[in-house]
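Here is a complete protein record:
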Amino acid sequence: MPFRTSKLLRGLLFISLLGFSFAWLGCPTDVNSNPPPPTKISPPRSPKLILKAIAGGGTSYANISWLASKDTANSTFFGYRIITNELDSNGNILRVFQVQSVDKSTLSYKVDSLILGSRYITSIQAELTDGTSSDTVSTPVYGAVYYNTDGRIDEFATGSESGFGWPYGATDDGFEYSYTTANANAIDLHLRRNGTLSFYSPKVYPPGVRVTKLEVVGADSTAFNKTSLNEPDKDSIASVAEGNVYLLKTASNYYVKVYVKNINNSVSPNYKTLYFEYKVQSVPGLRIL
């Protein structure tokens, strides 16, 4: 009996090992041959914003760009989803303004037809082909800008027009004014020479009454398109040079950029005339333009 029991146990062990061997042979030898798609993907990075408009009250738009997700090499990576929401003054979403998906080779998008006076925020997320999406990255809150190329202001002198202002906020052109008491409430910027040709807050020189703060942003189109801006300097005086870009905060709480294009004596030999482009943020108190 003992011999027969041992023989039976050996037979059962052999059958068990044989079954295990077949099960093992049926398994794939390369566990990484078909990796599952990721359940979480890296978002796009470093979103950038430039605000522009067609001169003279034309369409305002935002150019959004970003750096690629770190997961673009994955075979299931599709691209990016861009969502622009319109906000109320407290930052709450009023409505979805635009939604667009783009393929992974696209790293920029134009948000068109912005409405003057409205607030927006644009968010970007990466997407896989199965609909899996990353966390979002977002721009700062921004608004449509009013842009024109016809800015002109004279150096202060007899017969000159050394005042400039935006009396209708950010929904219309600025205008050149003689520097008089009658025009004082419309003037946001004054140009005169006190040793150096400079922009002044009108309040510095009577009969000016409005307080405008000024800051030199930089030079050329790079500075004119820069949207991350410091608060304008409190001393409200800035020397003038061709190519310089200035940020103004007006007494009406609008932010304006002035890009000096040319300074010459073409109007009168007695004083300089300065020609500039300007961009006005249409949302009061919003320093993104």
